[in-house]
Amino acid sequence: SDLIKCKKKFLDLVVLFIGSLFTILCVFLNKIDSDIHEAGHMDIHTNHTEQLNSTTSHDHEHGQANHVKTLADFIMINIDPILSTIIVILFVYFFGAILKVSCMILSQAVPIYINIQEIKKDLLKKIPAIVNIHSLHLYEYNPFHLCISMHFVIVKSSLKPVKNQIREISDEIIEFFLNEYFIFKVILQPEVVENISDYPSHDDHHCLLDTENKCLNNSHPNCG
Ligand SMILES: [Zn+2]
Ligand SMILES: [Zn+2]
Ligand SMILES: [Zn+2]
Question: Which segments cross the bilayer (predicted)?
Fold first, then answer.
């Protein structure tokens, strides 16, 4: 599934790249388009039998039927609307892809290819010392930069100071996110309990720092 995640991420980047490329191409096509119009305009005027001078008004419509003599003329006259239509279609299609990615970044939505529940499961399996993970949030600042924040609960060890215990597990978590998900920015909040029974197993979202978040079940004295 890691390979699928990478493929989807790569696909997003490819769409973004092609989109940017076409936007630039559209600008160039627009320039060429107006050059062709200028050229066609000059050509039509040199073929006129009438003599244009500064006093006669210039009131003919460009692209009128009387100008169409050959197929080349027809293409020359109609190249404007044809090219414009193609450019608009390309622009809307590829700019739409850029807009979609931009909106996802701005709303800091969870990337579609990453499942938070899956991360939680993976992490608990990889580091059994963690009793619980809650308040897990994933942000996307841009397609290359992810940020994760979470609270984790551990049981106080009798073998080493709590400070060392927290540092070791924090390092393991940071390494996990770097290796498995390419996430460089990790914000961690450790929470320590004396015994495993101090953390309510029935309340998956229980936070030891949140004193307002009390369990409604009165038969659980350790809750809240
Ligand atoms: Zn918490
Ligand atoms: Zn609770
Ligand atoms: Zn409870």
Answer: 12-32, 81-99
Cα 190 to middle of ligand 1, angstroms: 8
pLDDT value for 112: 57
Query: In this structure, is residue 211 part of a structural domain?
Result: no
Q: Predicted confidence band at 224 (pLDDT cuts at 50, 70, 90)?
A: very low
Rounded distance, CA 20 to CA 41, Å? 32
Report CA(47)–ligand 3 centroid distance (Å): 92
Return the pLDDT at 192.
95
How many domains, in total, are found in the chain?
Answer: 2
CATH (domain of 153): 3.30.70.1350
Residue environment code for 36-60, b if the CB has 16+ CB neighbours within 10 A, otherwise e? ebeebeeebeeeeeeeeeeeeeeee
Same domain for 92 and 154, yes or no, is no
- 34 alpha carbon to ligand 3 midpoint, in Å? 72
- Give the model's pLDDT for residue 44: 55
Closest CA to 200 of 174, 221, 181: 221
Q: Which domain holds residue 73?
A: 2-106
State the distance from the centre of ligand 1 to the C-alpha of 121, rounded, in angstroms. 17
Q: Is the same domain home to 84 and 172?
A: no
Could you tell me if 94 and 120 lie in one domain? no
CA 115 – ligand 3 centroid, Å: 27
